[in-house]
Amino acid sequence: MDTTPTDSLAPPAPAGKTVTRAGDRVFLGLSRGSGILLLVIMAAIAVFLTVRTISAVSQDHGNFLTTFEWNADNTPPVFGIAVLAYGTVVSSVIAMVIALPVSIGIALFISHYAPRRVASPLAYVVDLLAAVPSIVYGLWGALYLVPHMQGLTAWLDQYLGWTVVFKQSAPGTAARSLFTVGILLAIMIIPIITNVSREVFRQVPRAHEEAALALGATRWEVVRMSVLPFARSGIVSASMLGLGRALGETMAVATVLSSSPVLTAHILDPAGGTFAQNIASHFGEATDFGRDALIASGLVLFVITLLVNGAARMIIARRKEYSGAAA
């Protein structure tokens, strides 16, 4: 009796061709089309920003990078790229230095330390914080955070003023500085980094943690040797999401920061500005040339964001082989 399966009697597929269902082909086409559409949109944005930037630079009689105050055709003051880049980068770095360790600590507490009856409500609160509008954070920062920052800024000026960074030129003034903005941005991006990191920590194979516990490792040693190495690329991705929010934040920064066309190393002084805040503050009353100048600053922010995300992808690619993410 012949027991050969009927499937083995079917003619083989032609070499170099894969037999797929109609649904697979449709999904492949939609996925490919979505990727191409995304590239087209990004290219269109880049072309638009570049064209308007060329128009602004061709009419500018100052230096595009270092001019601190850009006036033309009765346009309101528009800060130069150097001042805006400095304010954007410094405030974002301050936010990341504060938010990253706090977010990782909260995510580890929720995923590995807190009992379920505590972890679930805490995770729910973090999710709610991520959904709070920017303007609400801005109003809270202007009405509550700024008045309560004066004591901290005075302490930093007294004991760390010798570092120049924490030197305050006019003690006692309102703390509407890049340092205050950085703290506000840190509060805003902590829920984003925490949520992504928490989900990454939950993806760590249970066998890795059980093996470490079986070898006599403590809870912290399990986290240090099993959880963090596996989640390293995910933490970088979460950090880049938070950094992108910090770089592009508008209304909260505009509400808190007392900007001025001054480039200084004193982060406690009201000085500097950010790209997004400057665009939002001056776009409505700017002339055609002023709008082109603001769009030019938007192009610089666009390039900075692309460079940051590109660097993050390179870090993730290099670290992936050392973590369990590729397994």
What's a concise summary of this model?
The protein is mostly helical and 327 residues long.
Question: Could you give the order of strands across the largest sheet?
Answer: 1-2
Provide the CATH top-level class: Mainly Alpha
Radius of gyration: 26 Å
* Bulk shape: globular
Strand content: under 5%
Average pLDDT confidence is: 81
Helix content: 55-70%
Category by helix and strand content = mainly alpha
CATH topology: the name is: MetI-like fold
User: Which runs of at least 5 residues are low in confidence (pLDDT < 50)?
Assistant: 72-77, 322-327
Distance between the termini: 45 Å
Q: Helical segment tally?
A: 10
- CATH homologous superfamily placement: MetI-like
Number of E strands: 2
Name of the CATH architecture: Orthogonal Bundle
Largest sheet: 2 strands, antiparallel
Describe the structure.
The chain has 327 residues and is an all-alpha fold. 69% of the residues lie in helices and 1% in strands. It has one domain (60-326): MetI-like (MetI-like fold, Orthogonal Bundle), CATH 1.10.3720. It has helices at 22-59, 81-113, 116-130, 134-160, 178-202, 206-214, 219-248, 251-256, 275-282, 288-320; strands spanning 69-70, 78-79. Strands 1-2 form a two-stranded antiparallel ribbon. Helix 5 packs across helix 7 and helix 9 packs antiparallel against helix 10. Its main location: membrane.
